[in-house]
Amino acid sequence: MSYDLCQIKPAVKPYFIEAIGTYIYSIEELCFYLYNNMYLLDQSIINEDLCIWLRDELGLKRLAKQLSEQLEREEGIAGFILPVFREIGYLSAAGMREYAEKIGKLDVQAADLRQKLKADYLVRSGMYESAINEYWQILDRQSPGSLGTNFYSGVWNNLGCAQARMFRFEEAADCFYHAWKLTPTKEMLRRYVSALPLFLEPEVYEKKLEELGADSSLVRKIQEHNLRIAKEAGSPSEESKKDPLRQLEQLKKEYRRSVRK
Questions:
Q1: How distant, in Å, are the alpha carbons of 31, 51, 77 from that of 71?
Q2: Which of 126, 101, 123, 130 is nearest to 42 (CA)?
Q3: Residue-by-residue DSSP string for 118-161
C-alpha cells in the first residue's frame, strides 16, 4: 500500500458502516475497511448514501459522481470499489490487479454462496448475531437445486456453531440435527449428540438417543470421544467444583472448542 495518512480532511459527520457497527471519518478508513472486509461488501456499503457522504462530507464530488454512475450501470462490486482506492493511491498497481481478481471471482459466485462466505467471516470475527442472521436468510430462501444438499448442510452446521458460541445449545443442537439429516455423516451426528447433554437432563438425553435410532456403538464412540476431550482439558479445580456456574462455563468452553468449524 502506498498512501499518506489523511490526504483529505476528515469528515465532521461520520459514515456508519452497518455490517460492523462502526463509524468512519476519512477515506483512508473507508479504504481500509473495503480492503480488509471483502466478504462484507454488499448493499450496506455499496449504495447511494456512501456517494452522498463522500460528496458532502469529504468534498469528493468527482468520485461521488463516478460511483453513482457505477451504481446506475450495475457493473459489479469491483467497478464501485476500485475508484475509491485510486482516489488516494491506496494500492500499488500490482495490489489493484490482485484485489480486482479476487473481487471479480467473488462477484460471479451464487448469491447464497457469497452470503455464506460473509456469514463465515462474521463468525471468525466474533460477530455471531450478525452471522446468525445471514445464515437464516440463506435458509429462508433455500433452493436445493442450485448449490446442492452439502452446501445447505454446511449452512445448518455453521449456524449451529454460531449458536453454540452464544451458549444457545438447544438451538445449536437443532441446527446440527438438520445438518445431519441432510448429510448423515459421523461428524454431523457427533455434533448433534454432543450438544444434547448441555441442555437435557440425563434421562431425557437417553430417551432422545433411543428415539434417534442411531447406531449404539457409534454413539458410544462419540461419548468416549467427548470424555477424552474433557480429560485433556484437565479436571475442574476445587474452586470450580464449589461453584456450579463456573463449572458450567468450563464445560461450555470445551464444547465450543469441540465444534469449531
A1: 18, 10, 9
A2: 130
A3: HHHHHHHTT-HHHHHHHHHHHHHT--HHHH-HHHHHHHHHHHHH
How far is 98 from 3, CA to CA, in rounded Å?
Answer: 17
Would you say 41 and 77 are in contact if contact means Cβ atoms under 8 Å apart?
yes
Task: Quote helix, strand, coil % in the chain, to nearest 5.
Answer: 70, 0, 25
Average pLDDT per block of 10 residues along the chain, 261 residues long: 59 91 94 92 90 96 95 86 95 93 84 90 92 94 75 95 93 95 90 87 85 74 66 52 49 55 51
CB 117 within 8 A of CB 156: no
Looking at residue 194, its pLDDT comes to 86
Assign 208 to helix, strand or coil.
helix
Separation CA 227–CA 239 (nearest Å): 21
**Whether CATH 1.25.40.10 fits 111-258:** yes
Per the confidence metrics, is the pTM higher than 0.90? Answer: no
CA-based nearest residue to 155, from 166, 167, 143:
143
Write down how long the chain is: 261
Q: Where in the chain is the domain with CATH 1.25.40.10?
A: 111-258
Cell of 68: 453513482
